[in-house]
């Protein structure tokens, strides 16, 4: 048994507490719009980057009796995920949570649907090959993988600076959230996300920050080529209901 004293996936430890407030509605809209276009699984589902559990729980409710496996390496996100599963006690026997990153999965041939809702873009280049091997390996012959159509990598000769600002009401209070992300031409960079909790009069009650760095993205092969090299076949493209202009692709592992 391996003991972890630090969590390398908790760069979003502060933002995790606000994730559902800031992003929950968008994620629910995405999942509710996509599931009707996916053939119901019969063997099992693997949800990669389960986060706070919105896709995981939606699939468990939509396909009762089908085992659902949620992969979430972040301890902070798992707090929300496990709490939500516990609140719906009937799902505890259906949903299994794997507290590891996708590249650490070793089990094979146990699901016929893998979902990675905008999760693969977060994979470090050093873990890219092992991650795709794990996801494809988890599928039984004829199984499907749903993931983003493109990773949206930066151009070789372009650097980018992005700033995000927003706010969410919480009763009488307001949660302000903002981010500053700088990306170098090689895809490396860093981000700082700030969260400010204000009372009804605008007085600051709480402020904290998340900091993260990301490695050069150009060391990672393109997604489509990597999946095709593993025998996966692109079946069809689906519009992302929550992000106009964005698409996901349903890939199929050929039946033997």
Fold and architecture overview:
The protein is an alpha/beta fold. It folds into two domains: 12-152 and 220-253, Vaccinia Virus protein VP39 (Rossmann fold), CATH 3.40.50; 160-214, S-adenosyl-L-methionine-dependent methyltransferases (Single Sheet), CATH 2.20.130. It is built from six helices and eleven strands. Strands 3-2-1-4-5-11-10 form a seven-stranded mixed β-sheet, with helices on both faces. The relative contact order is 0.15.
Task: Compile the SSE list and pairings.
Layout (H helix, E strand, L loop, with lengths): L12 H4 L2 H16 L10 E4 L5 H9 L5 E4 L3 H13 L7 E4 L12 E6 L11 H11 E10 L11 E11 L2 E11 L5 E10 L5 E11 L8 H7 L3 E7 L7 E6 L4
Parallel strand pairs: 1-2, 1-4, 2-3, 4-5
Antiparallel strand pairs: 5-11, 6-7, 7-8, 8-9, 10-11
Q: So what's the CATH class of the largest domain?
A: Alpha Beta
The geometry reads as: globular
Largest sheet: 7 strands, mixed
Q: Which strand order spans the largest sheet, edge to edge or round the barrel?
A: 3-2-1-4-5-11-10
Low-confidence stretches: 1-5, 153-157
The CATH topology of the largest domain comes to Rossmann fold
Count of DSSP H/I helices:
6
Task: Please indicate the count of domains.
Answer: 2
Strand residues, percent: 25-35%
Q: Please provide the ordered H/E string of secondary-structure elements.
A: HHEHEHEEHEEEEEHEE
C-alpha Rg (nearest Å): 19 Å
What's the name of the CATH homologous superfamily of the largest domain? Answer: Vaccinia Virus protein VP39
Average pLDDT figure: 87
Helix-strand makeup class: alpha/beta
Question: What CATH architecture of the largest domain do you see?
Answer: 3-Layer(aba) Sandwich
Helix content: 10-25%
How far apart the termini lie comes to: 36 Å
Number of E strands: 11
């Amino acid at each position: 048994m391996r003991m972890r004293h630090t969590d390398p996936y908790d760069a979003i430890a502060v933002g995790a507490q606000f994730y559902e407030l800031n992003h929950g509605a968008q994620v629910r809209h995405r999942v509710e719009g996509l599931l009707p276009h996916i053939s119901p699984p019969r063997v099992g589902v693997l949800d990669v980057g389960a986060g706070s559990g919105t896709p995981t729980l939606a699939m468990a409710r939509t396909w009762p009796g089908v085992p659902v496996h949620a992969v979430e390496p972040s301890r902070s996100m798992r707090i929300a995920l496990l709490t939500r599963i516990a609140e719906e006690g009937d799902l505890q026997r259906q949903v299994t949570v794997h507290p590891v990153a996708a590249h650490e999965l070793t089990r094979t041939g146990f699901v016929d649907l893998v979902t990675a809702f905008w999760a693969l873009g977060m994979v470090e280049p050093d873990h890219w090959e092992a991650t795709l091997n794990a996801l494809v390996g988890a599928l039984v012959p004829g199984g499907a993988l749903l993931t983003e159509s493109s990773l949206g990598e930066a151009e070789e000769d372009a650097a980018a600076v992005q700033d995000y600002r927003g706010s969410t009401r919480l009763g009488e209070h307001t949660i302000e959230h903002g981010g500053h992300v700088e990306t170098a031409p090689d895809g490396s960079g860093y981000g700082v996300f700030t969260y400010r909790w204000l009372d009804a009069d605008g007085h600051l009650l709480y402020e904290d920050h998340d900091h993260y760095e990301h490695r050069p993205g150009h060391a990672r092969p393109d997604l489509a080529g990597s999946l095709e090299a593993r025998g996966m076949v692109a079946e069809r493209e689906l519009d992302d209901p929550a992000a106009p202009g964005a698409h996901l692709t349903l890939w199929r592992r050929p039946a033997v």
